[in-house]
Amino acid sequence: MVLRGYVPTSEETLQTLAALRLQSLNSDFSTHAPFPRLEELFPPHVLHARLPPPPHQPPTKCRGARLRAGLLAGGLWGQALAKQRAERDQRLRGRLREEGASTMAAIVEKWKLLQGMGRPEAMAAYVALVREWPGFGSTLFDVDLHAVRPRPGVVQGQPSQRATLTPVSLQSPVGSAPQRLWLSIGAKAVSLYKPGEPEPLDSFCYGRISSFGASDSSTFRLSVEDRDLLFETSQVDEIAQLLNTYLASAGAQR
């Protein structure tokens, strides 16, 4: 979860977690100790996030401009653009190597401070840090919240017509596009997180979930009290199976 970026925390804490992993793997620091690759210790997306975004390419305004651009792209201008892109990519790779070396150096310095810590102690400290995130122990799925609609017959206690599917935010009344979220399924609740945010947007204990299922092969519906939440995901079956397991467990404990 840590390396996949599913534990939102500071870079300082991520470096400490990497140092604890090195301590558990290799014991005390030594220049002769085998070093895992950085991506086996530290989430790669954190380093990539430090790089500058690619330059914005303004769209061509008319057919004639697009035609001229296409003709130029096939000649010297296209070669110049390709050279510029290659040089930019080389600079970004160099910058990424520098960021990686700097991060590894910081991890090693933290590793040196752990001298004398045994493997079980290092593992326990690692888990204790990760457990500080409220979503620890849950299974996370990348989903797009496509729509939230009132459930027929439960809005203000009166029958209602089926609502038109409109992408909406959990926080604001209307959104312009699906939201990328983490759907967190744990032993006690289902939660929704903005990627990288430590606190959930909303959480639903299993007693609040009235039904769920697949609307189609890529759309999952979760009915919570007076709302139907529709998610676009490639893991419809996996989500349904896990929810079935936890709901059955929650029902057995009542």
From TrEMBL:
Residues forming coiled coils: none
Domain FERM: 1-254
One Pfam family matching this protein: FERM_M
Gene: Myo10_2
This protein's name: MYO10 protein
Signal sequence segment: none
PROSITE patterns: FERM_3 (PS50057)
The organism of origin for this protein: Cinclus mexicanus
